[in-house]
Amino acid sequence: MIRFDNVTKTYDGQRRPALRNVSVDIDKGEFVFLVGTSGSGKSTFLRLVLREYQASSGQVWVAGRELGQLPRWKVPKLRREIGTVFQDFRLRPGQTVAENVAFAQRVIGKSTSHIRKVVPETLEMVGLAGKADRLVEELSGGEQQRVAIARAFVNRPKILIADEPTGNLDPGTSVGIMKLLDRINRSDTTVLMATHDSTIVDQMRKRVIELDDGELIRDQSRGVYGTQ
Ligand SMILES: Nc1ncnc2c1ncn2[C@@H]1O[C@H](COP(=O)(O)OP(=O)(O)OP(=O)(O)O)[C@@H](O)[C@H]1O
């Protein structure tokens, strides 16, 4: 589903690469944690998958496409296959929960009847069935993250990318969010999650890929956050 073939990424004006000769293969339906200290290259890795940036050398394959060969006009279609969730939720204030989730459908041209069906289904799935008409800013952080996950998942993407999704949440709330991501993964969605949350990684025992100064230094199945 995601393959990096000897990928190096050096940002414009930088001498040191943010990623260096990274090769990794992530299959359909896997759940992968991406760990590493701040500045090790995790966000760069995710941004290459989303084709926000292109590799300086090597190849990035996502859902059967080599992103270096992908014409710009096909990028929106690629991104439709990838749901994204961030630490800071990135919801639309002043709009309700249902409107935030429906927006993701509207921008890709789904019909109103389709939206009326899938938005409540998705809100039910994330445990927010009773909160559809609340303004998002009235919700707790954990609930806001559930809205963001509903929005990411409503189009049933092949891949869900989560960049520090529990970074702003307390430990108990984080466990609920992880249960939800685990459920989404079990519906055959590939989940790639960058995190500093060692407790979560140690509890979940999923595949762990560790970056250090742009290099892939560990790839462990049923792994833990740190090796020491
Ligand atoms: N747009 C950019 N332009 C120049 N350098 C960048 C850019 N984005 C990231 N970098 C550099 O690339 C390296 C890797 O950064 P990246 O954001 O991928 O790390 P990270 O592991 O996600 O860190 P964090 O855990 O703090 O989010 C760092 O040295 C960073 O300063």
TrEMBL record:
<keyword id="KW-0472">Membrane</keyword>
<dbReference type="GO" id="GO:0005886">
    <property type="term" value="C:plasma membrane"/>
</dbReference>
<keyword id="KW-0067">ATP-binding</keyword>
<keyword id="KW-0131">Cell cycle</keyword>
<protein>
    <recommendedName>
        <fullName>Cell division ATP-binding protein FtsE</fullName>
    </recommendedName>
</protein>
<keyword id="KW-0132">Cell division</keyword>
<dbReference type="InterPro" id="IPR015854">
    <property type="entry name" value="ABC_transpr_LolD-like"/>
</dbReference>
<comment type="subunit">
    <text>Homodimer. Forms a membrane-associated complex with FtsX.</text>
</comment>
<dbReference type="InterPro" id="IPR003593">
    <property type="entry name" value="AAA+_ATPase"/>
</dbReference>
<dbReference type="GO" id="GO:0005524">
    <property type="term" value="F:ATP binding"/>
</dbReference>
<dbReference type="Pfam" id="PF00005">
    <property type="entry name" value="ABC_tran"/>
</dbReference>
<dbReference type="GO" id="GO:0051301">
    <property type="term" value="P:cell division"/>
</dbReference>
<feature type="domain" description="ABC transporter">
    <location>
        <begin position="2"/>
        <end position="228"/>
    </location>
</feature>
<comment type="similarity">
    <text>Belongs to the ABC transporter superfamily.</text>
</comment>
<dbReference type="InterPro" id="IPR005286">
    <property type="entry name" value="Cell_div_FtsE"/>
</dbReference>
<dbReference type="GO" id="GO:0016887">
    <property type="term" value="F:ATP hydrolysis activity"/>
</dbReference>
<dbReference type="InterPro" id="IPR003439">
    <property type="entry name" value="ABC_transporter-like_ATP-bd"/>
</dbReference>
<dbReference type="InterPro" id="IPR017871">
    <property type="entry name" value="ABC_transporter-like_CS"/>
</dbReference>
<comment type="function">
    <text>Part of the ABC transporter FtsEX involved in cellular division. Has ATPase activity.</text>
</comment>
<keyword id="KW-0547">Nucleotide-binding</keyword>
<keyword id="KW-1003">Cell membrane</keyword>
<dbReference type="InterPro" id="IPR027417">
    <property type="entry name" value="P-loop_NTPase"/>
</dbReference>
<dbReference type="GO" id="GO:0022857">
    <property type="term" value="F:transmembrane transporter activity"/>
</dbReference>
